[in-house]
């Protein structure tokens, strides 16, 4: 019996040693995967609390923990509203990561805990929030009586998809139906994830209209001047054909998660990526590419305060996107890959803007042919992706789903989508938190809406739509 007790005591001591050693390891050198998880938790909670006005516990549960990753269920967060700080820790103890709210510019990950550097990276004077009005959408927020047939479709959970948060259907320039998930409304700013890429491309297009940048510009970054990356053109980046290596796998610590949650200077990783192919020869979907585009257009503006205000001054204000918040990294580069928050009404405004070929209230804001590039496939993507940071065939071809050939898409992580169908004068925005493993396809919703439209467009309208979908000049 004494022998057994000695063995049990030794095992208990060994177990204590393992626990203490493991805790010390997690405290001193936490694995990158835990740091990514905490960085994600801190950033998502920060943005949704300070931009969307949501409850921190709801965001932690619904947005961070519920989608399925078991490690994320062990994340704990604390919110310091007075200083705009959010801290996340694994099990409330380990691998701390931080986010900082900067008024008017949303939240930023601060993986190095250097809040002073993050605060000093952006201007202190932020423009006042744009005011909304009650005029009819898109000039204001007023919405008339819905189309009952389409509204009924939005109430079908199979078509709306799991964890739908907002759907807005626009036909002939007016909102004909909308639906919202529990605790969400037309006033809730929602993240677009990779739909942000297309908005970022449009901001670059605004600079093109002013002659400050072009599709054919190369020698885009000073650090590329002495190697083959100097040959990369703006058009290569817009089409995801730069030839730069980049790992977009979200299942582990990859380039994309390292860039978003471990590096305060998000430009650094993609700017230092090696070439794996000649520019224009290989399609590689890359969030790093979109961040590079942000830094390139900001560099072309030259003046930092003007660059920080450019998205608002050049795009959001003219379009009346009063809720739009375009977030930056901790060193002052817009995260053009992922971090734009806006209400579903404002996302729909951007879709209407593209449907109108970059013209708003009679004023051309994008060069002629720019939206055409957004609708023109690249050869290297086998027709799936376009010359302007948009999709022609996410999840398969449009014709395979029985959709009009001129349909093009903005899509984002966790089920964000915007379908634009010029031949039907139609936009369908769908936002939610719907992980890809659930298998939801927004194509089915779009097909049902198209079938419910009161009438088809006239042949001359369809011809005009096809005329606009020409490659860039």
From TrEMBL:
Organism expressing this protein natively = Rhizobium etli
Query: Would the keyword Nucleus turn up in this protein's UniProt record?
Result: no
Q: Pfam families from the entry? A: Beta-lactamase
Entry protein name? Beta-lactamase/transpeptidase-like protein
| Superkingdom of source | Bacteria
Bilayer-crossing regions: 7-28
What keywords are annotated for this sequence in UniProt?
Answer: Membrane, Transmembrane, Transmembrane helix
The Beta-lactamase-related domain sits at: 166-431
């Amino acid at each position: 019996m004494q022998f057994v007790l000695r063995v049990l005591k030794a095992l208990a001591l060994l177990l204590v040693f393992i626990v203490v050693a493991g805790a010390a390891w997690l405290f001193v050198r936490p694995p990158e995967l835990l740091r990514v998880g905490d960085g994600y938790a801190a950033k998502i909670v920060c943005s949704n609390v300070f931009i969307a006005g949501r409850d921190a516990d709801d965001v932690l549960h619904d947005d961070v923990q519920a989608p399925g990753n078991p490690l994320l269920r062990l994340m704990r967060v604390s919110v310091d509203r007075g200083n705009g700080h959010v801290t996340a820790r694994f099990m409330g103890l380990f691998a701390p990561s931080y986010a900082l709210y900067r008024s008017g510019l949303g939240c930023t990950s601060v993986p190095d805990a250097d809040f002073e550097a993050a605060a000093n990276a952006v201007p202190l004077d932020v423009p006042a929030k744009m005011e909304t009005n009650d005029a009819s959408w898109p000039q204001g927020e007023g919405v008339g009586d819905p189309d009952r047939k389409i509204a009924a479709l939005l109430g079908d959970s199979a078509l709306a998809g799991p964890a739908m948060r907002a759907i807005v259907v626009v036909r002939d320039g007016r909102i004909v139906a909308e639906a919202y998930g529990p605790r969400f409304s037309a006033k809730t700013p929602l993240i677009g994830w990779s739909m942000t890429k297309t908005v970022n491309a449009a901001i670059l297009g605004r600079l093109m209209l002013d002659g400050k940048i072009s599709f054919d510009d190369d020698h885009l970054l000073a650090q590329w001047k002495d190697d083959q990356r100097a040959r990369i053109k703006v058009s290569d980046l817009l089409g995801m054909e730069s030839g730069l290596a980049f790992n977009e796998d979200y299942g582990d610590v990859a380039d994309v998660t390292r860039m978003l949650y471990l590096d305060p200077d998000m430009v650094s990783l993609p700017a230092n990526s090696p070439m794996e192919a000649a520019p224009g020869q290989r399609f590689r979907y890359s969030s790093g590419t979109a961040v590079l585009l942000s830094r390139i257009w900001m560099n072309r503006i030259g003046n930092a305060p003007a660059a920080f205000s450019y998205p608002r001054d050049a795009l959001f204000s003219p379009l009346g996107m009063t809720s739009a918040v375009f977030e930056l990294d901790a060193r002052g580069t817009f995260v053009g890959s992922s971090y734009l928050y806006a209400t579903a009404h404002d996302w729909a405004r951007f879709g209407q803007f593209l449907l109108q070929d970059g013209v708003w209230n009679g004023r051309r804001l994008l060069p002629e042919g720019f939206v055409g590039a957004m609708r023109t496939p690249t050869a290297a993507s086998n027709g799936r992706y376009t010359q302007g940071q948009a999709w022609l065939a996410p999840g398969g071809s449009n014709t395979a789903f029985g959709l009009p050939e001129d349909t093009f898409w903005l899509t984002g992580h966790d089920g964000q989508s915007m379908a634009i169908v010029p031949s039907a004068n139609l936009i369908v925005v769908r936002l939610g938190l719907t992980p890809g493993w659930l298998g939801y396809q927004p194509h089915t919703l779009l097909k049902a809406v198209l079938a419910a439209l009161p009438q088809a467009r006239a042949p001359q309208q369809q011809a005009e739509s096809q005329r606009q979908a020409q490659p860039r000049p």
